[in-house]
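Backbone-to-sequence.
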């Protein structure tokens, strides 16, 4: 058992080892704050168990052993208490119902099929396949103004039926 005067001397020696403890903690954690937390935990455990320090042994080795054990305990605890699988349901945001989109797609398909063929051809070329007005005019053997007019009328028919979907 350590006497009170010996305890004060050991406490002073522990303080002198703080830079060495910080350097050793950096081997376990890259983050400075995590390393400092480990040093603090080590110091708390060392001071709480100072009566267990055996005279004649190296204080630095004893402190490093406490730190290593503290790190291993924390590491094992975090592995054991890690949340389940990576795709945990609690991490996901709400899932919007797919039925509404399915119904909307079916309605758009019916509206598309119900349009005159010359509107469908222009919508297909410009809006779906991304062709230019000029290329579409060449493919459909009509003027560029006619392509623009047909596309505008087709869009207006869809907007009349479904409203502005951006709102």
């Amino acid at each position: 058992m350590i006497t009170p005067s010996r305890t004060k001397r050991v406490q002073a020696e522990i303080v002198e080892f703080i830079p060495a403890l910080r350097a050793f903690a950096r081997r376990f954690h890259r983050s400075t704050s995590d390393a400092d937390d480990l040093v603090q935990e080590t110091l708390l455990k060392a001071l709480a168990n100072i009566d267990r320090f055996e005279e004649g042994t190296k204080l630095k080795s004893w402190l490093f052993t406490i730190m290593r054990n503290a790190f291993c305990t924390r590491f094992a605890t975090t592995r054991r208490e890690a949340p389940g699988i990576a795709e945990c349901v609690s991490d996901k945001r709400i899932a919007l119902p797919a039925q509404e989109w399915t119904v909307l797609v079916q309605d758009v398909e019916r509206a598309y099929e119900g349009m005159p063929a010359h509107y469908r051809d222009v919508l297909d070329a410009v809006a779906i396949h991304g062709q230019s007005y000029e290329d579409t005019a060449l493919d459909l053997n009509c003027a560029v103004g006619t392509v623009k007019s047909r596309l505008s009328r087709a869009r207006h028919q869809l907007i009349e039926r479904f409203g502005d979907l951006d709102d």
